[in-house]
């Protein structure tokens, strides 16, 4: 039986991510909270940082963050773990993540 986390994940090259896509991913309060949680503690499971929304909505949030180049996900046993692609994202959009994280803590 295949694992529910067996689906291969796509992580875009950061040069393919537009400024508008990056800003759009960070403008949602749920996604911003997820990013802030990963900035504090990388390597958390989806369940640990999942916003208080339905599972389909949470999956969509994870997909948007991954497509915007913010999130790296990998499977570990039956869990899907998450971390920010901080260095790569900061190189592509200097200062943007810092501004978003400052807003998240206000």
From TrEMBL:
SMART domains: HTH_ARSR. One of its GO terms (molecular function) is DNA binding. InterPro entries: ArsR-like_HTH (IPR011991), HTH_ArsR_DNA-bd_dom (IPR001845), WH-like_DNA-bd_sf (IPR036388), WH_DNA-bd_sf (IPR036390). It comes from Amycolatopsis pretoriensis. It holds the Pfam family HTH_20. Residues 21-98 form the HTH arsR-type domain. This is DNA-binding transcriptional regulator, ArsR family. The keyword Transcription regulation does not apply. Transmembrane segments: none annotated. Keywords: DNA-binding. The keyword DNA-binding applies. It comes from the Bacteria. The lineage of its organism: Bacteria, Bacillati, Actinomycetota, Actinomycetes, Pseudonocardiales.
